[in-house]
Sequence to fold (465 residues):
Amino acid sequence: MNWDEYAHWGRHIADWGADYHKNLRDRPVRAQTAVGDIAAQLPTAPPEMGEGMDAILADFDAILMPGMTHWQHPRFFAYFPANATPPSMLAEQLVNTVAAQCMLWQTSPAATEVEGVMVNWLRQALGLADVFTGVIQDSASSATLSAVLTMRERATGYTGNRDGLADKGHLRIYCSDQVHSSIDRACWVAGIGQVNLVKIPTRGARFGMDVAALDHAIKNDIAAGHTPAGIIAITGGTGIGASDDLGPVLAVAKSYNLYTHLDAAWAGSAMICPEIHAEFWADVDGFDSIVFNPHKWLGAQFDCSVQFLRDATPQLNTLKIEPEYLKTTGKAVTNYSEWTIPLGRRFRALKIWFLLRSYGLDGLRERIRNHIDWAAELCEAIRLLGGFEIVTEPILSLFSFRCPGDDAMQQHLVDTINDDGRIYLTQGAFQGQKVIRFQVGQFDTTRDDVMIAHAVISEIWEKIQ
Fold:
C-alpha cells in the first residue's frame, strides 16, 4: 500500500465509522454468533500473496462484524462502559499515524510534557490536592499491580526486588470482600499470594469495609508474626458499586504506617461533580495511590487509566531501572517509563487533551449526572414489576435486582435478554446469590434508551416465566 492508497482507505474507514456509530441502535448489542462461527470462516493458513484492501474490508464487514459486541451501543448496560468519544477517536488516529514510542522524554518530548499537564488537569477536575502527581497507565490492573509492588517493597525495606521473597515471611494486603479481581491478580503476580490477601467483610448502605474488623485482622496478623504491607480501598466496586468510608480506613492505615491505594476505576470519573466528590471522597487526599479510568465513564477511548501518587518516590524506588541506553543527559526530565511496569508507552495523553477541550468539564458533568438520575428512575420502575426485588440500591448509576425464582432463573432471564439483542446486561453475585447488574454509563445513551430496558425486561419476563 502506498500513501495515496492509505489516504483513500483512511477516508473510507472514517466514513464507515461515522455511519457505524450513527446507526448503532439498529444492531443487536451483543454478538449473536455461536462459539467457533467466526474462526470457521477464516483460512487455516496465512496467505502467500497480498490482497487488496477492498477485499480485506469486505471480509471485515461480512465475517467479523457479526461477531462483535458493540460497546459503544447506547443500550450497553453490562459491565462498565468503555466509551470512545469522537474527539478521543480522532486523537487516537493521530497517535497511530505518528506511531511514536513514548518511553522517555527524549523519544517524544511533547508526549511526556502533555502527559504531565493532563494528569494535573484531571487532578484539578477531581478535586485532589496539588501534592499529587501521577502517570497514565494502560488499565487500572496495571496501576493496582504497581501499587501492590510498592507495598511489597516498602514493607521489605526495598529488598524484595533484589533478594526475592523467600525469607520475607507472610506479607499481608487488606481489602474489602467487594474488590475487583485485579486486586487478587496483583497479589498473585507480586508473589504475595492469594492466602495473604485478607478480605474484610462489609457493612452499611454502601457496603464499605468494616473498619473494626480491619483493625482486628491487622492486630491478629502482627501477633502471628506476619507483616502488614498495605490497604486497598474502593470507591464504586465492580459488583454492586461498594464504596469504603475513606477517612476511617486511612486512620487505621496511619496507625500501622501502611501504604494505601484507592481503586476508583469506574466511579472516579464522577468525582468531577463537586457534590459527588463531597459525598464519596471525603479524606481522599490521604491516600498514597489512587487510580481511575478515563476510558470508562469519562469518554476517553480505551485504554487510558490515570494513577495519582501523593509521593512518587516509593513507586519509583520499586519500578525504576535505568540501563545505560535509557539514560537521559542534560537537564533533569521525567521519564514516565520509570513509573510503570511496561517500558514501551503510547501517547495516551493526547486523547485526554482532545476530550477535555472538546466537551469541557461542564459537558462531562451533565452526562454523568443524567446517567445517575436515569439509573435511579429505572430502578424505581423495576421495583414495581411483580415479584422483582431490588437487591442493592443505586450507588451512582449502578444497581442490582432479582426476578422471582432461583439463581438458574436469574441466569435464564439474563441470557434471554441478551439473545434478544435490544439491551445487554450481565449477572453478578452478592451475598451468595446471583443478581442481575444494571449500570448506565454509555456516553451517548439517552433517557429513552435507559427506559427501554424496563419494557424489554418486563416483556421477556412475561415470555419465560
User: Anything to note?
Assistant: The chain has three domains: 3-74, 101-346, 363-464. The chain has a mean pLDDT of 93.
